[in-house]
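Figure S4 source data
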Amino acid sequence: MITAEDLAASPNPLARHYRRFRVEERVLLTGHSHQAWPDVAAEGQLAALEDAAALVDDKWDRALAVADEVRAGFRRLLADPGAEIALGASTHELVVRLLSALDLGGTRPRLVSTDGEFHSLRRQLARLAEGGVEVVLVPAEPAGTLATVLAANPAEPHVFYAANNRGLFRSPDAGRSWERIALEWPDDPLQYRPAALEVVEV
């Protein structure tokens, strides 16, 4: 059984199931429909096509049965036979589920995103801003102003490191402020896009 401690290890024990998305080579910071899919998703997509072609309008009983199998798989992974597992049907629903886990009315009523997000998130953030939640939209352009990879060191609580094609940066206060780390960087940075970042104690 994979534990939470296992998931914090490097390499991540689940990475071998995501080889098509090369998660062992890069950190994907996408939290919507562009997130990494497991390799087995290819089989699932093909099976869904075959079921739809064979059953047409009668495919829903089969789809619901497969959904139950997916929930059962997550229960085994969590070692919780009675777990209530809800499957999201859309990006919008995924965003709502994520937001429901945040204390938006408490000590951190702030959400940080970019102005280049998909419509589902953009609209949801606009409604939250109307309701009083502080929404900070970081410009997605020009290229190079957004971090492409993030990393942290457990020995440095609240300290984060970020890299993009402009250089390497460090935040001493959990992302509230950033300082550039003096480090040689390529002369033509726009040709480079960091795909991985790891903090190593020396």
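Figure S5 source data
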Amino acid sequence: MRRSQFWLLTSFWMLLIIPIRLGSQQPPPQSPVPSPVEQNPQPAAAPEPHGDPASLGSIKTIFVVPMKNRLEHFLTNELVRWGRYSVTLNPRQADAVLSDTTEIAMKDLMLPDAKIRKTTARTRGTAFLLDVKTEKVIWSVAKDPSQSFLLGGEKSTRELAKEIVQQLKEDLKIAGQ
């Protein structure tokens, strides 16, 4: 057996054994006494959208800024497949800009001969929809870019894009649009 295989198997067994031993050292759970609030539960409040619903409804066309790991390609694909918004390759034709950072030089982006470069965001899994006219963030989301090692490690860029657009769909649905 090779050394790397040995360490992989040893690590796997350690991950299985340690939780079992820790679980056996914990005292047995006691039955909780329900509080008066738990006895008469209130209906859950409706979830809040991740942005300004009125501004989201006024957006018709989105420009997707180039991002790390070609995320813009997958976001554009998901937005086009959804069909709710038009996606443009010209930022001057857009109502909003979708980016992975808020550090966008909007005025430079709107110049006729603007050189559009990839963002330099240090995070992965964030998305911001910025209003072109007001330069305000009208919607944002932060998705977990990774899973546990045993479940496969980092999510693909495609999976991340699907989750981001799905959150936008859900937030529009919550806002009633």
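The CA atoms of residues 68 and 120 lie 7 Å apart. The mean pLDDT is 79.
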